[in-house]
Amino acid sequence: MEEYHNLFKAFNRFMHIKTECRYNVIKKHNISEMSLKQIQYLKKFDRPKHVTISQLAAELGLSKPTVTEMVKKFIRLDYIQKEQCTRDARVYYLFLTEKGRMIARLEEMANEQFIKRVKNSLDEDDINLLIEILLKVI
Q1: pLDDT per position as a tens digit, 48-77
Q2: pTM surpassing 0.70?
Q3: What is the CA radius of gyration of the chain?
Q4: In Å, how far are 1, 13, 40, 95, 131 from 4, measured between CA atoms?
Q5: Dihedral (C-alpha) 34, 64, 53, 90: value to the nearest 10 degrees?
Q6: CA end-to-end span of the chain, whole Å?
Q7: pLDDT range class, residue 24, cuts 50, 70, 90
């Protein structure tokens, strides 16, 4: 039981540090006004090809009017831009701005900060041991 308690405490602290890293990225880039759901939606724009409102609505399982309102908000916040299709003037492609791309990649930046913290706390042998242990779990 003691072993379980110690593992629980260690894991809980480990995850707390990860959350701190996420908070630091959010604070550094002043994006606290974004909900987690909005960040998840914004990630849908983070792809090599541009996306349309219809494609996004189908992908998210939402109505086109709902997605249109979300897109308008993201455009006002300078997270995405829209560009008219040169072949069909009725079609607009949506893509992330630099600010939007940064928000969509928030988790990746938080992970990088977390990994830097781990690397600064452990020597090479400990890092290799940690990797070995984590690979056993996953």
Answers
A1: 778 899 999 998 899 999 999 999 999 998
A2: no
A3: 20
A4: 5, 14, 34, 47, 21
A5: -140
A6: 23
A7: confident
Answer yes or no: do 71 and 44 share one domain: yes
Q: Give the contacts of 95 (CB within 8 A, at least 6 positions apart).
A: 45, 50, 51, 80, 81, 82, 83
Residues 24 and 43 in one domain: no
Q: What is the pLDDT of residues 115-137, one digit of tens each?
A: 999 999 999 999 999 999 989 98
Q: How many structural domains are present in the chain?
A: 2
* Domain match, 57 and 82 both: yes
The residue segments making up the domain with residue 115 are 1-30+105-138
Residues 93 and 109 in one domain: no
Residue 39 shares a structural domain with residue 88: yes
The CA-atom distances, in angstroms, between 75 and each of 31, 70, 100, 110 are: 15, 9, 10, 25
Quick one: average pLDDT of 18-28? 85
List the structure tokens of 39: 């960040």
CA distance 51 to 95: 7
Which two three-digit tokens encode residue 81? Answer: 């831009």
